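2024-03-11 09:14:02 DEBUG pipeline.ingest accepted 1 chain
2024-03-11 09:14:02 DEBUG pipeline.ingest length=462
2024-03-11 09:14:03 DEBUG pipeline.predict start
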Amino acid sequence: MDVALQPICRSLTVPGRPQTAQNLIRLWLLWLLWRYIQPHSSKMPLQRLQHANRITCRLYSISRNPSPLSVSAVVVGAGPAGITVVGNLLAQGQRQLVWVDPFFRGGRVNANYREVPSNTKVNLFVQYAQEVPAFKTIVESAEKPNAFTALQELPQEQGCCLSYAADLCLMLTEGLAKRSDIERQQAEVSKAVLDERTDTWSVDLSNGQRVTTSKVVLCTGSEPRPDGVPNLQALGSGHIRPVHLDIALSPSKLTQAFDPAAETTVAVIGASHSAILVLMNLVNLASTTHPHLRIKWFTRNQLRYAEYMDGWILRDNTGLKGQAAEWARQNLEDGAFSNSPVSKIITKISTAQNEQETYRAELPRCTDIVQAVGYIRNPTPTLEVIGKDGNRTEPAVVYDHSNGRFFTDVKHAQTYIPGLFGAGIAFPERVTDPRGNVEYAVGFWKFMKFVKRVVPDWVSKP
């Protein structure tokens, strides 16, 4: 910006929104200059006219290519994990945050899983919303009734529809957006570059903005894994229509995925919590609006349930809970299946032995397939490092599930990358239960416990 214009921009800058305010001011000054130049251009001396035009072009260029923001942290993603990280960074005294997301609509839980029954008790959602000061402020100042009071009115020791949790995400997102120390950027991160000479990150956004910071936190989420059955073509099953897991988990969307009058056989792959919910939804369709629908359920494992022990939960993150567990016990276990109405709809097929041969024999008779075999990370931004020697590299990074940091592993020498962190379903905490079983902790309250533990270290030792 020209030196003569800097005092004007500084005097009119809005606290907490410096870059947004300055860009608006530049456009306003541009408009004023244009209004002045246009009617007087024929009478102005050539030198003054050329100088005015240079200022106009300079303002236009700056407004189109804004200078970098400099902030304490950039949080990428606005699902449950991103919300959690923002709240905890604020609790640790971090101010001037940039929060990046294309939508700011609660992530996948709001977009796709509102109809899914939770395997988390309601009281943990309530506790989550009161765990950090920023959330408490939003909850206490919100007009009632609201998403938080709706959760308070539910039975606290049971699960609930995830729409309640999704509405809480939206409420917290809107509340955080009103803060002057958070700059929301509705965009995606295209690239983040660490300069090791200064331990500073330069983060490029898809809207053209560049942000400099000492800390980048990736809360970029995950999506259903598409490859539970490899190479359908080679198995003679290339005709099978894939049904996305997100659709199969939403009863209102699933009912539109099939022709009620058509003979339909759906292959369901897996024995996970999601797989059981899919079976529940398909059985409900077959029992009501789609009488010609049948299911082939392929699984290599026995059903596993979460078990409440003395102060801890066995298979807390991998076992069936809530509605899915209750329905599976009543209908799918060997002692119950033959006497259950679902046995007329579901054919159970074990793939524990000769998996490929089983698929080759059974899949050609199916018309559709739902794969409920876990999740994979969404793509992350390109990460580059400028070394102390000035050379630029694109290192392979590894996530440390114990502390939320990333490191490089070169010839078995692990080196943490300064200021790069992760959290959420893509980057969860690794936990070990009292029996030595290792799992990855996923869920609102589990994100909160992990992030609350590690963020103080992120802030003090970036």
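2024-03-11 09:14:41 DEBUG pipeline.report The mean pLDDT is 89.
2024-03-11 09:14:41 DEBUG pipeline.predict end
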